[in-house]
Amino acid sequence: MGNLSSRIKNSSSNMKGIIFTPEIDIHTEIEKISALFDLGIDHLILRKSGIEMSYWYAYIEQFPYGYESKILTYDFQLLHDLNLGGFVFDMDIVNQLSDKDLFENIRLLKSQNKLSVLVVNDLESLRKYDSKFDLIIVETSLDVLENEEYMNHNWVEYITKREQSTTCLSIKYSDDNEQYDDYLCAYDYTQYLWNEPDSVVERFKSRRNGNI
């Protein structure tokens, strides 16, 4: 496998970087996320509980012009009003749509050069919708997926044997993910970065430089 740090450095340079907005307000949040954009993080996903739509309009206006194409949202109105980069489906939304309507929505997003993203937390959904979306985010860390007491190894078996497709696959970040880098194309840095909000930028630099 080679030196761990050099492996991560090489793999990280080819990986997309994803971050969800923190669940709570953090001082200088916009400033920190703007710095992450400048450093090359690829997508910001807007997600906070119980927030009015007006909050997001004001929130996005604080970013430098041009970064809206990197921002992904769970809200269709926000997506189109501010010409954001893509729409995030969760399973609650998907379960309310027929397959025909779901795939029509995905087609429309593609025709507008917007990403279609799905967040899943069960293997059945991953299997069913793999290759249908531009990006699938597995909302469980590999540390958990490998824990037989919690789930089983079917997740890992599927991920390591899945056919290469047009769908980009990301799994919640953990320091031990390097052995699966060949099967993923994006890191979800959310937990890794926001668990130490005062050092978000430094931690991202360190991770991208191959330091644990």
What would your notes on this structure say?
With 212 residues, the chain is of the alpha/beta class. It has eleven helices and eight strands. Strands 1-2-3-4-5-6-7-8 form an eight-stranded parallel beta barrel. Strand 2, helix 3 and strand 3 form a beta-alpha-beta unit. The radius of gyration is 17 Å and the shape is globular. The two termini are 16 Å apart.
Strand arrangement in the largest pleated sheet: 1-2-3-4-5-6-7-8
Structural class by SSE content: alpha/beta
Residue share in helix: 40-55%
State the shape: globular
Count of individual helical segments = 11
Strand content: 15-25%
Task: Please state the CA-atom Rg, rounded to the nearest Å.
Answer: 17 Å
Mean pLDDT: 86
From the N-terminal CA to the C-terminal CA, the straight-line distance is: 16 Å
State the order of secondary-structure elements, H for helix, E for strand: HEHEHEHEHHEHEHHEEHH
